[in-house]
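Protein modeling request. Please complete all fields; requests missing the sequence field cannot be processed.
Requester role: graduate student
Desired output: 3D structure, token encoding
Chains: 1
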Amino acid sequence: MANSYTVLADLRAGRCSNTAEVRLLRFWEAKNINKRGQLMSLEMLLIDEQSTLVQGSVPASFQLMFRGRLTEGSVYNLSGFDVTRSSPKFKLSDGPISIHFNEGTTFEKIETTSRMIPTEHFRFQPYEQILELANTGKQLPDVMGELRAIRSTITDRLPGAQRVMLTLRLAGEVDVCVSMFDSLALAFHSKFDGFGREPKIVLVTAINPKIVSGRLYLNGTSATRVFFDCETTVGTEAFNRLPGGGADQGGSSTKVIHAQKIEPLTIAELDNFVLTGDPQVIEFLCTAKESSFTCLKCNLPNAVARLRYRVIFSVSDVTGIAGFVCFDEEVAKLTHVLASEAAQIVVGLIDF
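Delivered output (352 residues):
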């Protein structure tokens, strides 16, 4: 006898043998960068006809069973899965439960369906609520705005970790900075180069809001996706609301801002620039004496798939004192020791 049909809102903790009909909105890899990028799981967002959004997870041990079946935007029959309470940290959906695939899970693509399942779903927050979420680790909301500037270490051919910083103007004429690093920055550039023109509207999913030195930064995560202009329904609506319906106006200039020339600064001048300058990628020469350093381990959950070590250097010159934060491989460029190795050294000294 066929399994009975269920909707996601009716799921309860335990193993579910009923069948849910869902659309796969997005999926991504959750990796442990502390173990050289070891795959932990495949994460996904699923939605049903009632617009209930649930995060699903395929453990690394089962990923070969399911990876070849995953096509974003397709509809699936899902049964034989485990239902657990969702994590209260770094949430990508508002529901209380999440879905975990197991060895008995059935996830079969269906070509046609009579059910009206949404093709997109985004979790936008007003600027004030994003500010409230900063540094709390509670939610990974989505943002959409008019593109004002692009700063990139890739186009500027700067050495070290790759970074892209977008300045977006949100509703209410508020400008925010969205930062993307390494593989995410490279993926953005690949999409940007293939788009054929500079977009006007950019939508970024699953950002992690942080306040650094009094400024709000929206950091990309492993769950982040970027959409340009009319690639989404909400993006099309925003694009059409632009002056001239989004059409190019005469005299428009590029939004790409290249790195400035390298300038020597004192610690005091650098502190003042960080506190008062606009967010941007820029290089300075600053000569100072290292007085101490602290090495910490940053534990972040599977939703963002980051386990990182950071080192905080305290440096000084005759004008003042400043702290510099470096992560993982960046530390090796300064000390020839990875941050994770430095942490073990510090632990060993404490134990001794």
